[in-house]
Specification:
six-stranded mixed beta sheet, single chain, 17 helices, four-stranded antiparallel beta sheet, alpha/beta
């Protein structure tokens, strides 16, 4: 899938701290580099000059300078790390928070194309990779560039020829780092992030579906998929490391070449150029110190390719613009639910899932509803039936404003486009086919809907949904439900979800296929209990393939091909 370059640049800009925050780190890094180069130059001059046995007074100033540069290198390195990491990690937190804010309008229906492992990788690994932009790319390149220019200027004072040789070797080193690194490891570096995501997806799928895989003796096949993903990631990582080592080795070799060329060029003309032994030693050894500072450049270029790949994946997961099938430009939430009034009215409502044209709906057919007319009155019980793919789940998501719609949709006589989605969902609740249960206790899963509820209120709502005895038998409200509700059955998960909805006090409750994961022999009893638990003043839209218990439903509607048809 092609990625908008402007979106990638926006992600990269968001990862780079502002200049006023990051400048101290660059300056401290430059101080570290200058101290290292100056320390070697001063030491070379001091040792060579001391061999000539001059008076101590001619050496004292340089002795002090050597000590100052040695101390300064450590001090500047400390300041560089503190300032750089403070700026980068502070920016990283802002990037991750911004990414979550951009994901919220897309959830849940705008993330259909993104696997859970890939999304987790985007939020953790790829965002973490972005911190390399300031720390391993911008700062090393800026420090290396400034130090190289300073070293060439200093060398030119002693010998213009040596300065030209040093400059030429630095240019060749940069070209070598760019060309050799791109040729040897660019493909592997770009592949690491996607392969890491594929491994996360494969591993997550195996762990989540372990019970099903075990039941069908498919654990070995799933494990082979994980091993294949891990092997592909290992090969890409190895190729990347080999390319980095090859490039770094070539640049280090070039440092020796620069020193040798300077020695060969300056040694014959040393006396005529006014160069003594100490000056010649400085000219020969300075390139080694400069190339030591220049050494991170190949790694910076390698990191750039990895960071850009991570930015592309983030931009691909979180588009710059919200898909038109999702609500956008909503009013700010007020924290108050809109009045239900005389109920909900839909006239000529049409909607589709994002990417429905590509066959990427929710699994409910093509994910569309067309010209739907519907009225839900306060306290009314409706049963919506129809074949798989008819658009029933799409309609449910339109009612809770997970999906945008055209036509007229009013609640209490007010158009929903003037109501924030969060406010609307205080009035209309949705219990989905597979309720999400947190890896917490039963108490915490219920308090999620009403954090101020007392234990007496929790027991009362559990009794309404027929779970009080079961919870007592499990040890009370502090009993766990397992990861994603793995320790409870499908029917019990539906009852917990309904208890949560009852605590939230929704005036309109949508039950989407509550018996989908329940044994057919107990589905009638579950439906009867769910409908009996709902208060008489609460409206219910029951979406189900099976018939509801007699006397529990006021009207039956049928949906086919995205339209409500006569029953």
């Amino acid at each position: 899938m092609s990625v908008d370059r402007a979106a990638v640049r926006a992600v990269l800009r968001s990862a780079q701290p502002p200049a006023r925050r990051f400048a101290p780190a660059v300056l401290a890094g430059f101080g570290t580099a200058v101290s290292s180069v100056a320390l070697l130059a001063a030491s070379a001059w001091l040792i060579t000059r001391a061999a000539e046995r001059p008076e101590l007074m001619y050496l004292s100033a340089v002795i002090v300078a050597v000590r100052a540069f040695a101390l300064g290198r450590g001090v500047f390195r400390y300041l560089e790390r503190v300032a750089g990491h403070d700026a980068a990690l502070g920016r990283l937190a802002a990037v991750r928070a911004g990414l979550v804010r951009r994901l919220v309008p897309l959830a849940p229906d705008g993330l259909g194309r993104t696997g859970r492992g890939a999304l987790l990788s985007n939020l953790v690994d790829d965002v973490d990779q972005l911190q390399d932009l300031p720390l391993r790319i911008v700062q090393p390149l800026a420090v290396a560039g400034l130090t190289a220019l300073g070293a060439v200027a200093f060398t030119a004072v002693l010998s213009p020829v040596a300065a030209l040789i040093l400059l030429g070797c630095l240019v060749v080193g940069f070209v070598l780092a760019v060309g050799l690194g791109a040729a040897a490891g660019a493909r592997a570096e770009r592949a690491v992030a996607p392969l890491r995501s594929q491994l996360a997806d494969a591993l997550l799928d195996q762990l989540v579906a372990l019970d099903v895989l075990t039941a069908y003796a498919a654990t070995d096949a799933a494990a082979r998929g994980v091993r294949a993903a891990d092997e592909a990631l290992r090969r890409a990582t190895t190729r990347r490391a080999a390319a980095q080592g090859l490039t770094a080795g070539a640049v280090s070799l070039l440092a020796g070449v620069a020193s040798l060329l300077i020695l060969l060029a300056c040694l014959p003309a040393g006396h005529t150029a006014g160069l003594g032994g100490p000056e010649l030693a400085v000219l020969v050894l300075v390139p080694m110190a400069v190339f030591e500072v220049f050494g991170p450049v190949p790694l910076a270029l390698s990191s750039w390719r990895q960071v850009r790949a991570a930015a592309q994946r983030i931009a691909q997961t979180v588009p710059q613009a919200i898909p038109t099938q999702l609500p956008q430009n909503e009013p700010e939430p007020t924290g108050a639910a809109p009045a239900l009034g005389d109920g909900i009215v839909l006239r000529g409502v049409s909607a589709a899932w994002p990417h429905a044209a590509d066959g990427d709906g929710d699994g409910d057919g093509d994910g569309r509803i067309v010209d739907v007319d519907l009225r839900i009155r306060p306290g009314e019980r409706l049963l919506l039936t129809g074949p798989s793919g008819a658009g029933k789940t799409t309609l449910a998501h339109v009612l809770v404003r997970f999906l945008e719609c055209t036509g007229t949709y009013r609640i209490g006589g007010v158009d929903v486009h003037g109501i924030a989605g969060d406010d609307l969902r205080r009035r209309i609740g949705l219990c989905e086919q597979t309720p999400y249960l947190f890896h917490e206790s039963i108490r915490q899963n219920l308090l999620f809907a009403h954090e101020d509820a007392t234990d007496d209120e929790l027991w009362a709502v559990l009794d309404r949904v027929g779970l009080a005895d079961w919870v007592h038998g499990r040890g009370g409200l502090d009993a766990g439900v397992g990861e994603r509700g793995g320790l409870v059955s499908g029917g019990q998960a539906q009852r917990i979800a309904l208890a949560r909805a009852l605590l939230a006090g929704f005036s309109v409750l949508i039950l989407d296929e509550p018996t989908a994961g329940v044994d057919p022999a107990t589905s009638d009893a579950l439906l009867a209990d769910l409908l009996a638990a709902v208060g008489p003043d609460q409206a219910v839209l029951l979406i189900s393939h099976v018939e509801a218990p007699a006397g529990r439903i006021d009207r039956v509607l049928r949906m086919d091909a995205g339209r409500i048809v006569p029953t």
